[in-house]
Design a protein that fits this description.
Layout (H helix, E strand, L loop, with lengths): L9 E2 L10 E4 L5 E6 L7 E5 H12 L7
Antiparallel strand pairs: 1-2, 2-3, 3-4
C-alpha cells in the first residue's frame, strides 16, 4: 500500500524519552504509517486501518510478549 505522507503528523511514545524509537502517523485518511525515528527521511511501513487495529489488539493481548 502506498500513501501520501506529506501531511502525516508523526508521534512516538512519551516513554521512549530521548531514545530512538518508532514513530506512528495515525492522522492519515485510510491508513496508518510507521517509521524509524532515527531515519525520518527513510521508508515508512503503511498499513490499512484494519491491519493496524489487528496488530494493536495482538500487542495488547500479549501475542508478542517475550519471556
Amino acid at each position: 500500500m502506498t500513501a501520501d505522507l506529506s501531511q502525516a503528523t508523526w508521534r512516538k511514545s512519551s516513554r521512549s524519552g530521548q531514545q530512538n524509537c518508532v514513530e506512528v502517523a495515525g492522522n492519515l485518511t485510510d491508513s496508518v504509517a510507521v517509521r524509524d525515528s532515527k531515519n525520518r527521511k527513510g521508508p515508512a511501513l503503511v498499513f490499512t486501518r484494519d491491519e493496524w487495529a489487528v496488530f494493536v489488539a495482538e500487542v495488547k493481548g500479549g501475542l508478542f510478549d517475550r519471556g
